[in-house]
Amino acid sequence: MKRKLTLWLAVVMAVMSMGIATAVAEEAAPTEYTAFAMLNGEYALGDTLAWKTWEDMFNIHVEIESVLGADLTEKRNLVLASGEYPDIFIKAGLGMSDLTKYGTQGLFVPLQDMIREQMPNLTAILDERDAWDYMMSSDGNIYSLPEISLLGGANGTYWINKKWMDTLGLEEPKSFDELYEVLRAFKTGDPNGNGEADEIPLFCVSNYDQLLSYADFAYDASTKTALIDGVLTYIPTTDYYKEFLGDIAALFAEGVLDPNVLTQTGEQQAAIGQSGDVMGSFFDAGAFLTVGRDNDDDYILLTPFQEGTYPLTIGVTPGTFVVTDYCENVEPLLAAMDYFYSEEGGILAWMGVEGETYEIGEDGDWRWIVGTGYGDDVQAVRSSNTIQGAANHPSIQPDFWFTNMSAEVDPDEVYLNGERAKAADMGVVPLPMMSYTDEENEEIATIKTDVDAYINQYVAQVFTGAVTLEDSWDSYVSTLNNMGLERLIEIYQDVYARAIAE
Question: What pTM was estimated for this model as a whole?
Fold first, then answer.
């Protein structure tokens, strides 16, 4: 009996040990996911130091299919249409219409309840900014995680050549009339001093209307509307726009506005900007992206002409991270992703790992570490080791990024941050969150496509002299109304009324 009992206990202990070992092994095994993501330039998101560090912290592994930015939309849509899609889409350029479309089809998982349950950091931010509605699709669901950034310009940042103004003895313009005179002086005054008329006073890639950021109303570029005297007004059919268009057409006729504005592509902007000292003013997220890091401090962000009208975003961009219906174990994934919405996690996402990709000096400021295996210049370090890149990403931009960035290592970024803050301090978010129903979205998509195309066509005709502004304006407005513009405006006004009534 004693021997049988001993054998029985040995078997039990062996089985228990195997069970414990299995449980330990299962506990140690990482949770696996599949994903689709845009490349960080030439670098895969899954290979970046920040992403690998996050995976190790939370015992997660994500097998990521990476695609070039130029192929992103086409390949993403093909993957979704195939039915063989991954667990997650990260940095995949998904807009609100995409989220609504695939969410209502059941491909994307509603996340609002799990965000509140599993993501205290993100929940606190959305509560603080009252930004839940900005994440919500028309069916009332939230299908994505956002990028959270500081309030910033909603339209393209307008950079003007301060060096040229100083050379010509000009002050920074404080009105449209003064701006036009400065640009004309750039054209005729040889500010680059080479004796040639090679200056491009105003460079545009079909985005001249972003100058409306400096209007005396807060212009919302997505709807082409602004709140004027308490009424949501469609700007391209107003007398204000007629006068504005006339002024821009005059600049085009004089060669002040780049004559290639109607055909120029964004890819050509940096090539032209870095070909020599030729750019008088242009739109870009940062001046160095167009004219290079050696010349960007020749340019200033044109200060808004008045307080309270420069259009800002709320700093919450949805669509950076979605979970599909193929994904299992969604809750632990979201709990891990919540780290990126803390100050520490934001630092990891934006800056990488202290001592590896950045260091903090005795003065408390941080600096990039270059030339030690993680990249020989700042751009390489950022692209290969953070989760930043050309697309919005799921994280919060940390306060430390702005408050403690050293000008020694990246003076261009420090300069850019200061210039952006100058405009943001004078700005305002133009509209409340505009939540559209599915039916409204469908109507808007149908009408807006034709209306926007016709506006572009009409502007081209005015610029080239095919029609005169004065003789054609009434016909232009009438044509837009026949295309359904009045119904489009009615939808915008109805949605705005709902938004302010809530």
Answer: 0.75
